[in-house]
Amino acid sequence: MLTVRAPATSANLGSGFDVFGVALERPADIVRVSKADRTTIEVTGAGSQFIPEDPEKNTVGAVAEALSAPAHIQIDKGVRPASGLGSSAASAAAAAVGLNALYDRGYSREELVPVAAKGEAVVSGDAHDDNVAPSILGGFTIATESGVRQVDASIPLVACLPDIVVSTRDARRVVPEHARVEQLVETVGNAATLTTGMHRDDPGLVGEGMHDTVVTPARAKLIDGYESVREAALAAGATGVTISGAGPTVIAACYEGSQRAIASAMLDTFGEHDVEARAYQSRIGRGAQIY
Ligand code: HSE
């Protein structure tokens, strides 16, 4: 039997819609895999009541199928589904890394990214590598049609998850179909600034580069209190604030030492909107680990 811990992730980071992603230190899914004649799945932990155990319908079932690696797979969810923190991607990433090792398949971490994405497509209906890539590789990832690039960045972050549900379907439906050329120019500038910040481990540049005027404003309307939570985090020292993935988690970048004040400002402000929330103080972290 093998145990794998795969971290939550935050995709988009504002200017990198469907491209950028980072691994967080916490929360994480813990997945145990043991060889079996056919795949069976058991799910416990955060939001497990919403996750099907049928291998045909669960993200890890498709991963086992793709690797021809039947197994009994126990998933202990630390990452709540529909959080914007790459919940299904964390399970898929852990299963891909675990089953590859269990069956000695010999795939590299990079090669496991599309395998895990195939699993994620089972639940989301749409395969994006922007969550599975950082959950497998760690750090900051840039996932494009031509592959994945990875940077070992270490930026302090606060991820604040309100107790509300935003369906990914709705969050994708509100994405504008068109952007103006000025917005394109601004987005390219911001994405380049953010990437430079990751290479330099500079939270100021990362926060500045998170600014996005195309997708984030449309999605913000789905998150009660988003604008005031964003303002409160910035006032408490965040260098940039945006929606994590499809939401409702709100993510802030910051300098070392200001995470606690930012987390408390975000929690209090959600509270003023009668929204309960929890905050994860984290840094950009490592990818899936086998124990
Ligand atoms: N980039 C996706 C979205 C997140 O924001 O809808 C899931 O991969």
From TrEMBL:
EC class of this enzyme?
A: transferase
State the pathway, as annotated in the record.
Amino-acid biosynthesis; L-threonine biosynthesis; L-threonine from L-aspartate: step 4/5
What this protein catalyses is: L-homoserine + ATP = O-phospho-L-homoserine + ADP + H(+)
The highest taxon in the source lineage is: Archaea
InterPro entries annotated for this entry? GHMP_kinase_C_dom (IPR013750), GHMP_kinase_C_sf (IPR036554), GHMP_kinase_N_dom (IPR006204), Homoserine_kinase (IPR000870), Ribosomal_Su5_D2-typ_SF (IPR020568), Ribsml_uS5_D2-typ_fold_subgr (IPR014721)
What the protein does comes down to:
Catalyzes the ATP-dependent phosphorylation of L-homoserine to L-homoserine phosphate.
* Keyword check for Secreted: no
Protein name according to UniProt:
Homoserine kinase
**Domain GHMP kinase N-terminal, residue spans:** 60-139
Q: Which family does it belong to?
A: Belongs to the GHMP kinase family. Homoserine kinase subfamily.
List the GO molecular function terms. homoserine kinase activity
